Amino acid sequence: MPGTVIVGTQWGDEGKGKFTDLLSKEMSVVARYQGGHNAGHTLVVGEETFKLQLTPSGVLYDHIVPVIGNGVVVDPFVLLKEKEMLESRGISTRRLVVSGNAHLILPYHQQLDALHERHLGKSKLGTTKRGIGPAYADKSMRLGIRVQDLLDEDIFREKLHAALGHTNKILTKVFNRLAVDPDELADRVLSECLDGVGPHIGDSIDVIHTALEAGQHVLFEGAQATFLDLDHGTYPFVTSSNPIAGGACAGAGVGPKDLNRIIGIAKAYVTRVGSGPFPTELFDAVGDHLVDVGREFGTNTGRRRRTGWFDAVMLRHAARVNGLTEVALTKLDILDQLAEVKICVAYDIDGSRVEHMPYHQSELHRATPIYETMPGWQTDLSHVTEPDQLPDAAKAYLDRLQTEIGVPITLASTGPARSQFFHWS
Fold first, then answer.
1. Tens-digit pLDDT profile for residues 100-141
2. Sheet with strand 421-423: strands edge to edge
3. What is the CA radius of gyration of the chain?
4. Structure confidence by residue, pLDDT tens digits, 170-213
5. Can you tell me the distance from the alpha carbon of 84 to that of 80, in angstroms, rounded to the nearest whole number?
6. Average pLDDT over residues 383-403
7. Average pLDDT taken over every residue of the chain
8. Higher confidence at residue 23 or residue 157?
């Protein structure tokens, strides 16, 4: 079964959208399997830049069936806005399929998200306040409203009354806010969203498996990344779903035997948004350089990202958790101007050298990086499309990364455009 998973291996923003776009030309279906519109994918096609939040990156290809899987949480207002943006720029969304089993994000989820974050004060998690966590919480408490409920007005209203019966108590009694009127909200959602979203609601499981059974290639696109995974990330500074490769099974309705290629996307350095531990974080001029040259600001929020040197300890762990078959490296060109580059090969924790990710968060907070320093190449790589065009120092850096990770690097990106990449090993 020719199923491929693309997964982030760090704290997100690795450039998954670009490689999803590059691989999509070989695919028949591209399916998002978790997350919501808290994750932005930026794609550069010719002179045009597309910033997608919910729609799978494969939508830019005419032959692709883009699928929003059952594990995604969907804000119908955001989906409609994105659909309108794509159509206005000549990109058809008629093939888009939204799983009827995906759950809805509604305005009260976003209200709760912002209130919870403010209530945490200095302990805030740094969420995007897009309602992702509260929507997944309602799903777990079996108070969620699914996309398919939009197709049955009576059911939709009944479920909205039940959900708000619980949520309104929190809004009014805990946060001293006004209650949300379920009928007013139902009227708004149905009147503004049903006509635009309704035609796309379908059986995503059947779409995916029909393609797999026909021997067609299906790409499973994750949002966020391994160390933002609810179970395997730096909890509690994580997202509310499972971005790891195994999450594709639950979030898209496939089995492990349907997946035969797991591509981990990693930056040539590391970034993080929001709070949480970051052993290789830089607070110097090099860190500022990575932000400025790499344009390290959130696609959705515009927030400045924290930056640091490449962390091989993280990548070795990500390779284990995801079962990576290969790694695609992005933003190699951002290191072009540096006289030297560093790779974190291990941590020092209380005087001991540790080469694996510590399971206890207190140890991770105390970890200091042990670096291997290599010469920079100080050469513009933006036009490199063949490995032979690389300077020796860049080749040595890639070879060393590959050795430290223990997984082959097969692709490397030297810029945002579709054409700016090369095959490595």
1. 999 999 999 999 988 887 776 666 565 677 889 999 999 999
2. 201-202, 97-99, 65-68, 29-32, 218-221, 3-8, 259-267, 326-330, 409-413, 421-423
3. 22
4. 999 999 999 999 999 999 999 999 999 999 999 999 999 999 99
5. 6
6. 96
7. 92
8. 157
Stated as kind and residue range, the H or E segment containing 327 is strand 326-330
Q: Locate tokens 């696109």: which residue?
A: 221
**Cα end-to-end span (Å), the chain:** 24
Peptide bond preceding 256 in cis form (omega within 30 of 0):
no
Task: Yes or no: say if 241 and 231 are a contact pair by the CB < 8 Å rule.
Answer: no
Taking the CA atoms of residue 79, residue 136, residue 117 and residue 82 in that order, the dihedral angle to the nearest 10 degrees is -10
DSSP 155-213: HHHHHHHHHHHHHHHIIIIIS--PPP-HHHHHHHHHHHHHHHHGGGEE-HHHHHHHHHH
**CB-based contact 263:5 (threshold 8 Å):** yes
Looking at the annotation, which residues are catalytic? 13, 41
Q: Cβ neighbours of residue 348 under 8 Å, at least 6 residues apart?
A: 354, 367, 368, 369, 370
Reduce the DSSP state of residue 347 to 3 states and report it: strand
Instruction: Please report the pLDDT score of residue 354 as a whole number.
Output: 97
Rounded to an integer, what distance in angstroms lies between the CA atom of residue 197 and that of residue 425?
43
Q: Could you tell me if 76 and 189 are in contact, meaning their C-beta atoms sit under 8 angstroms apart? A: yes
pTM: 0.91
Q: The tokens of 25 are what?
A: 């030309």
Instruction: Tell me if residue 72 falls in helix, strand or coil.
Output: strand
- Mean per-residue pLDDT, 374-388: 95
C-alpha span between 253 and 261 (Å, rounded) = 17
The closest of 320, 275, 327, 256 to 8, measured between CA atoms, is 327
| Percentages (nearest 5) of helix, strand, coil residues in the chain | 40, 20, 40
Name, in order, each residue with C-beta under 8 angstroms of 142's C-beta and a sequence gap of 6 or more. Answer: none
Percent of the chain past pLDDT 90, that is, above it, reads 80
CA torsion sign for 244, 250, 255, 258 is negative
C-alpha to C-alpha distance for 334 and 288, rounded to whole angstroms: 12
Using the predicted structure, report yes or no on whether residue 10 has a pLDDT greater than 80: yes
3 state DSSP class of 360: coil
Q: Which of 231, 299, 251, 212 is nearest to 38 (CA)?
A: 299
pLDDT digits (tens, 9 = 90+) for 227-244: 999 999 999 999 999 999
